[in-house]
Amino acid sequence: MIKGGGSMDPLIPFEPISASHIPVEGDWAFQVKWDGVRILVYKSGAETEVINRHLNNRTLQYPELVETKSYSKEDSFILDGEVIALVNGKPSFHEVMKRDRLRGKEAIELMRDEVPIIYMVFDCLYMNGLSLMDKPLHERQQMLRSIIKETEHIRITENFDEGDGLLRAVKEQGLEGIVCKDLNSCYLPGGKDPRWQKIKNYLDVIAVVCGFIKQGTRIRSLLLGLYGEDNKLYYIGKAGRGRYSDKEWQTIQEYLERAEQPNSPYDHPHKEARDCQWLSPIYTVKIQFLEWTASKTLRQPVLDSFVERKPLECRFEKGER
């Protein structure tokens, strides 16, 4: 939260739980679930910081969000939302990661035009010296609409009253899913409970890259893994290069080859063992997939993007293994 003197302590955002059915009892708002990067914007006087859900600073990566005068006249606030990048009118996690993983200021300035971003803001947690987190969601949303002016890069996420219809539309358009939010819910930093629920059109997981298989001199596919409750690394499948171009994939291969090791990082042997090159389990990727098989591997996995995540955080859900 914003403290006196303009300094800020970032907070871990409130998260929705996974659900399979739209809630029917209570007062709910339904929103599109954007396939992007969860971002909180902290403004205190002349100082603005942009922080992701893992408390990593992204102020340099998204200068559009630092230019707060373009979308709000308020002196201090904390906003919660999702940064997205569009491809053919649809959010692309792969595309927004081109911005998120950049570190050099010059490279980011060049990429602003190549990969324009939109901040889909959906909550206001703090404003002008007052925390709003103990207020019900409908009041926070009202405050949000009163202080934010929509621009080319700033949009307020729309509420829908009818969840079934929104979910059908999301599936028809191939979007990630929907989020169901109790309009009377307060905001619990670091919390995750049924007051916010997500229903996904497709599944995804952050996995560890444990090795690769080559075709000739080029990497054909990555071997993936997750940690179990026993802190052992289990094989969950393999995926090709996904949306990466030849040039991007060549750069990725150069990094992966630096992490080669002679022994398998898995705790159990599997059928790929004779054909692959093992890697130190330091790289992580976001994978989209259709479903889990009975043997706890991914059906139809597709590589979305490399991401920054601590490998030991890449785990099966509790009780899955």
Automatic annotation (TrEMBL):
InterPro entries, from UniProt?
ATP-dep_DNA_ligase, DNA_ligase_ATP-dep_C, DNA_ligase_ATP-dep_cent, DNA_ligase_ATP-dep_CS, NA-bd_OB-fold
Give a yes or no for keyword Ligase in this entry: yes
Domain of life from the UniProt record = Bacteria
Keyword Disulfide bond among record annotations: no
CDD domains for the chain: Adenylation_DNA_ligase_LigD_LigC, OBF_DNA_ligase_LigD
Catalytic activity, EC:
6.5.1.1
* Residue ranges occupied by any ATP-dependent DNA ligase family profile domain in the UniProt entry: 110-200
Q: What class of enzyme is it?
A: ligase
Output the GO biological process annotations, alphabetical, semicolon-separated.
DNA recombination; DNA repair
Q: Tell me the keywords, alphabetical order.
A: Ligase
Family assignment? Belongs to the ATP-dependent DNA ligase family.
Spell out the protein name for this chain.
Answer: DNA ligase (ATP)
Species of the source = Pradoshia eiseniae
